[in-house]
Amino acid sequence: MDNTLFPTQEDQAEVSGAEEQPLAERIRPRRLADVVGQEHLLGEGKMLREVVRSDQVPSLILWGPPGSGKTTLARIIARETKSHFVSMSAVLAGIKDVRQVIKEAQVQRQAYHKRTILFVDEIHRFNKAQQDAFLPHVEAGDLTLIGATTENPSFEVISPLLSRSRVLVLESLNHENVVKILERAAVDDEFGLGTWKLDLERPALEQIALFANGDARMALNALEVAARLARQENSEQPAVTLAVVEQALQRRTLLYDKAGEEHFNLISALHKSLRNSDVDAAVYWLARMLEAGENPLYIARRMVRFASEDVGLADPRALGYANDAMQAFKFIGLPEGKLALAQLAIYLAQAPKSNAVYSAYQRAEQDVQTTLNEPAPLHLRNAPTGLMKDLGYGRGYQYAPDLPEGVADMDCLPESLAGRRYYYPGDAGDEKEIQARLAEKEQRRKKKPDNAKKKAGS
What we know:
Rossmann fold, Helicase, Ruva Protein, domain 3, Zinc Finger, Delta Prime, domain 3, 4 domains, five-stranded parallel β-sheet, disordered N terminus, disordered C terminus
């Protein structure tokens, strides 16, 4: 089997004490040609391969999920361009560390004519001041910055730094990529598990790859645990079977950040599946969020909002169901309360949809913000005192229930907005009936009965 993923003999000095390192660290690729996946960046003629080959590497922001190879790529770029490599974690480093690295980079450049590549892991955790500290030195060429982030750099990296960098999006490794990495790690005699002479069952590798969900580091860690369990059972002929793997694997850690972009991606997927009346997708995205540890009441609140914003009066019962589901969850809690939210998601997905209520409020809000805020018409005001009656409060008010038509020919909007319409019911669900009722009431309003009773006050 091809072992080019792993260090060659001349690399051995770099990994002294390798036995003490995790498998994922020991077999980290050392050359671009050894990297599995990311063909859109590393394939022949693709951007990253070409800038490394020409030794014209700009500052980069590597954006991708955990285990997609961000740290590995940064190290390989430095190695293949013969640059001085410095790595720091934004979780642990402060502005003092940043300044020290910049000073060291200037020495490397001036004294040794050597470029410094500074790799900042989790760069999104640096605050604005820390990110600002890089700007003049990136511009001056003192160092090449390679930042790694799992968060959308549009929101987490300051604009001046983004404008001086190329953002490269790394993709999760696909299932075949992960299986390939596991197979190579298992037979590599030098840095992998080859000396253990493992008997690997294909279903076991498939299960590890499924568990890893595109994260090579997670997959390799799981393989190492499974291999150790197999050796404990039979040190002479260790067999990594499906049963051993299932014993080694704990519950999968789902890719999710309750405060980050993945949070917004998944709630957006749920909302849009509900809107598209896709019941199965709605249940799936709900489960993805709940099983990843999202606050169930956050999801419930979003579905209450959906009941008004996207269902509205096409099914007036939806808002009641949404509130009932939220109260049911509060009463039952986890795990049984998940079913109340699933029931609500299914109901909202199959319900007729209308954004007429949402649009009506937007139109009214626009007028409130952009037109003169006139006082309420006098005939709509109460007149609890004699003075207010003398001033005309309540004069001309028509008490609709006492009128033969049940509705008064009376303007209730400010004079400048008379006749303005905000709510336009649609043709879906109950709104078709609402549309007919409103049209009928409008016709009644235009009639002027001779014996109309008028009643002042409320």
